[in-house]
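Q: I have 122 residues here and want to know how they pack in 3D. Can you give me a structure?
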Amino acid sequence: MSKDFISHVFEPFAQEDSCARTSYMGTGLGMAIAKQLTEMMEGNIAVESELDVGTTFTVTIPFELDSNYKEAYALENVDFSKSLSGLKVLLVEDNELNMEIAKFILENAELESITMRKEVRD
């Protein structure tokens, strides 16, 4: 994304190109929702982007550790007898390779995946 568009990336349905009807290059609601949720948790979200290379979003949310966290999360306190086996997972992915990898991982964990594929528009 361009440097100019970064200032608009968190606006609902922001379009980078004024010819939006042909390019569909925009944010929809996802980035606006992500920013709002992050701010509700007193965090922040930063954007770094290089046009035609890629974009990195960094979310920082402050959390305080419970003073007893080591005891609470000790392995001897974890019940490994519980299994996720047989549960269903809704898997939504627009990249075919990522979809196949995720399905493989879920099947190895004995989970049933229900898949949704987003049609790619050229």
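Q: Anything worth noting?
A: Strands lie at 44-50, 54-60, 88-93, 112-117. The chain has five helices and four strands.
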